[in-house]
Design goal:
This protein is of the alpha+beta class. 24% of the residues lie in helices and 33% in strands. It has five helices and eleven strands.
Amino acid sequence: MCWTKIVLSISMVFFFTACGNVDEPREELPAEEEPIAELTDELVEEEPTETEDPAVEEDELTFADIVEEYDVLSSFETDGPGTGLGLGMNVLYKEEDLVFVSGHQAHALGHFRLLKVDHEQQKVIVTHQFSEEQYEIYEELQTKVQEEGEQAAFEWMKAQDSNLYELFFTSDIPPSTTTATWNDQEWEAIEVEIKDGDEKYVFAKGKGLIQIHYQSELAQEIFGEVRVAERIEGE
């Protein structure tokens, strides 16, 4: 029995000794991360990119601009040598889109007219006309101009009902132009068909009306060809 206890005691010692030498499991440390590359203070120079200046938008062209550029509402005198054809216009008074003028047709028949600029329709229209055929009214207007002034005559004319609707000028925007020769010089011009094509007005840029083409069948029968009344130099 004693030996048995001794052997057991010795066995227990060796057992606990062996158990005490068993390695405890080690905690695995996280893998060491590679160091992040430091950013340098040096800035990377970018190649300068060319920037286009924003396009400057041109002012939108209006019908009023065209009327002004081509001096549509300016005084003029035309003459067709040897034919008696021609038209004259003398601007007496302007107020906004209305123009009061005196003038003549074919160097014979005097008249007073009122012209209106219609921006929406892109037209200049003769809305009123009193000629020497309406002798009393024509004489009354002449007297008003002489005694009361051009504005007073204009106000009287404006107060009357419209008695005419005749095209004087029209244009697309931008205008369709041609080249016209007047006074031995070429001009940028706008052509306007008047009176159902019987006449053609030619307006030169910076000058005004420079020619009237009389091209009706009647005019060609009388004169044998289309006749042109030219603006008189100096007018």
